[in-house]
Amino acid sequence: MQHENPASGKLAIAAAAVTVVLWASAFVSIRSAGAEYSPGALALGRLLAGTIVLGALLLVRREGLPPRQAWPGIVTAGVLWFGAYMVALNWGEQLVDAGTAALVVNIGPILIALLGGWLLKEGLSSRLLAGLVVSFAGAAVVGLSMSGEGNSSVGGVLLCVAAAVTYAAGVVSQKPALRHASALQFTTFGCAIGTAATLPFAGQLVSQAADAPASATLNVVYLGVFPTAIAFTTWGYALARTSAGKMGATTYAVPAIVVFMSWLFLGEVPGLITLAGGLLCLGGVAVSRSTRPLRRRAPVDPSAPPVPPGTDPGLVDAHTHD
């Protein structure tokens, strides 16, 4: 049996923590920069900055082009995760606050499990399907809670759901690609493909950058360097050294951090009903990712030794009688 290197395990935990904090900060930066940049221009500016940093790092490390087998996953993730996801999220955050967006987008892990079961033949458990129902009920509550604020807010919730779907599709595409390419190769070329996919917004980016204050443009650069170049790479590093279930669990912390950051920096806090719907979304994710074995009563073996007082002899782990 292969033993995990403790140092490698600690580095994976640190990498996952970096990813969670930087991805949480992205929701706040997007909300701030979105006042000056349109969704497509913001996505292109972020991806351009990320591609420049990642490309320089790839050259320094001399990793070169990914193997041919990795390209289908890289192209798919580049278009969906780096391209469509970022445009949809930017657009959604122009219509709803950062905390609400984070709560809705965090149904992504359950969609990853669903798509993995379908596309990667990993199977669909009853817990997954139950969690899916709970999470989408939570998304519906969030949508209904925003309906009193106009159709634009409901549209923002739907755009965040679309962002969650494209994020999940990108992660599922990443899994087979990482069998052939390094995390840095995947992130660099995925980011470059996302940049190419958002090039139609180049005119908007140029004109808006000319008028935007320096603080907004610095937010765009921050998004490209930290939540994109660094956080996507640390995500890949941790994913290669940690189970997918544990990595998925780390993202549960993102909405809580976003709500705190958006209150601290933007003065935004989701309403109580919206927050309850968001927590329902996370509850569904928790149900779907639960691995605790079901317990059932088993026949008592008369030849078995007596059990200690206060112990139920008929309550046993289901997996012991498979």
UniProtKB/TrEMBL annotation:
Among InterPro entries, the record links this protein to:
Alkyne_AA_exporter (IPR052756), EamA_dom (IPR000620), EmrE-like (IPR037185)
Does the record's keyword annotation contain Membrane?
yes
Q: Which residues form the EamA domain?
A: 12-142, 156-287
Residue ranges crossing the lipid bilayer per the database entry: 12-30, 42-60, 72-92, 98-120, 127-146, 152-171, 183-201, 221-240, 247-266, 272-288
Instruction: Provide GO CC annotations from the record.
Output: membrane
Q: Which Pfam families match?
A: EamA (PF00892)
Q: Where is this region: Disordered?
A: 293-322
Q: Which UniProt keywords apply?
A: Membrane, Transmembrane, Transmembrane helix
What spans are recorded as compositionally biased (Pro residues)? 302-311
Sequence similarity: Belongs to the EamA transporter family.
- Supply the name of the protein: DMT family transporter
